[in-house]
């Protein structure tokens, strides 16, 4: 919560400082008595309303409430012009910021622009010069953007913080999918192979005791490997060898009375590629073993440039058919190959079925390091949405304050050369500040900015408004502990001392000092908050990793309870049968009968656990939807009562497709998800780019057919600005 608290502290301090400045200026203009009291009352009211708009989720308010607070703020902002003169417009920038914070869609920018326009009219009405009118409008627009920036960054940090539970849930869901895939690919293979070889040994007894003993040796090897695979599934991946897996596959296929050819390209493979291809081969061979019609199988690899290709060919034409229960064998293979940066294909030619996996020898492309020195434009634009927004706002506000600094110098009426030199110094200040906010030049920033801050005094001869603001802000960012605040205060003291030495009036000295300190606070807040949002992202990732670790521990316990005992029992009984051979074939056959019972139970347990992990959950899908939409900048509101178990999976599918539609349409800024009384409703405001609902062949049509098959229905409505999808489920 540190980013949120800091943002609110900065906005509170800045609001108070600007309010105090406005009160000081009208006092200096001679405002006294009831006009001063009335003006102070308006200032306090505007201060309070702005705090509310900056620290509350005003976008979720009802429209009448938002209109009432904005209207009240407009009244207390412009009404004092009637008796306080042009100084009354000091807080108009806060009203502009409120328009951006409290209004949605394109109209927010129209209302934002209307505030400086109204300020221009008010200043013109009071008889101000054109230059002062332009300055007042610009200052209003810049202040509004600053208020919006700091307040929005606080909101973004709060959103990311609030979404961390959902994001951790997504990480856990991904871990569960990994577990389901590994259960299917690793344990499913070994347990199926154990059952096959145990059955073969059982049939060979008592007539062929020696051959049965050889099969039992393989059973022992496989059972120990299966126990290791339990640990692999629960704890992640371990290196595997394609060559070793090919030898094991050859043994298994021969035991199943198939003709086998294995042709592996010579040469070592990178560990990651070797492991991926070994797992892919294991699953491909498992698919072959599940089809008794297969009589021949070819396993081969070949190197082609920087890719290696694995082909598994067999003569069982129905191998491409669906697995019982909607298994995901081939889908798992494709997912693994794609994760390694490769592609997989299947083909059917008469009775011949071919699975091909092509994987780059170098593995998938390495992720780009998050190092500011190596950033490119594409890398920056590829960062998370909220981080891009934070940094864009920071850059725009810093540039705006740099222009404001040049305008303040212009008010000193310098010579042309002095103005150019001052503008160059201001450019240095802004450039260094932007670099610091993006992670550059943190060590060299203070001396460079100190020179650019005080050097213009040589040719201007007097301090100007906010001259030390960037230096003060950088001190808060780069110095540790109490040193930062000491240096920050020292900059303010130096500006005050320069003003006194120049002979300025007390009010002007106070203004220069306060303006410098306020600018420093804004610069610090607007620059540092974007970095803190990135830190929240990192904390979110750490939390997700912790959630995955806890999930792995839970999986390890569950697998140990379900499969560990069975596999250990199979190992013990197989060892006993192995020792009884060749002398006691009947007793060994009795032990093998027990092994077969345990093996069949283990196969059922693997399928049960894998299907349980693969089952889609509406609750998990809702958590994923919240996190995904929030990360895409969509404001999400979700309300869901208990979902009946019998429709849990299909509602999860409907929600996933509805959220996918929202994400495909960048115009969406809000989304509401509700489930109650057998109806799931997904509403969003991104209709401008949505597909036409009547368009045939869309995913929505597929969903409608699925719902109709269980007696439900799917409806969608679009208006001038919204799209609503409603799925009704029979109760």
Can you describe what's shown?
This protein has 731 residues and is an alpha+beta fold. Helices cover 67% and strands 9% of the residues. The chain is built from 24 helices and 10 strands. It has helices at residues 2-28, 33-55, 63-78, 81-84, 92-102, 107-125, 130-162, 164-204, 209-235, 242-255, 271-289, 329-339, 377-381, 385-410, 416-437, 445-454, 457-460, 469-478, 481-502, 506-580, 585-614, 618-631, 648-663, 699-709; strands at residues 259-263, 296-304, 307-314, 343-349, 352-360, 635-640, 670-676, 679-684, 713-718, 723-728. A 5-stranded mixed sheet has the order 1-2-3-5-4. A 5-stranded mixed sheet has the order 6-7-8-10-9. Strand 2 and strand 3 form a beta hairpin. The radius of gyration is 35 Å and the shape is elongated. The two termini are 43 Å apart. Mean pLDDT is 76; it is low at 319-328, 366-382 and 689-697. The chain crosses the membrane at residues 6-27, 34-52, 72-97, 109-129, 135-158, 389-410, 416-441, 453-476, 482-501, 508-526.
Class of the domain at 615-728 in CATH? Answer: Alpha Beta
How would you sum up the global shape? elongated
Radius of gyration, taken over Cα atoms and rounded to an integer in Å: 35 Å
Give the CATH H-level superfamily of the domain at 615-728: Histidine kinase-like ATPase, C-terminal domain
Residue windows where pLDDT falls under 50 for at least 5 positions: 319-328, 366-382, 689-697
Spatial sequence of strands, sheet with the most strands: 1-2-3-5-4
- Helix/strand class: alpha+beta
Helicity range of the residues? 55-70%
Distance linking N and C termini: 43 Å
As a percent range, the share of strand residues is 5-15%
- CATH topology description of the domain at 615-728: Heat Shock Protein 90
Oligomer: single chain
| Averaged pLDDT | 76
Number of helical segments with 4 or more residues: 24
Number of strands: 10
Q: Give me the CATH architecture of the domain at 615-728, please.
A: 2-Layer Sandwich
Biggest sheet, open or closed, and with what strands and sense?
A: 5 strands, mixed
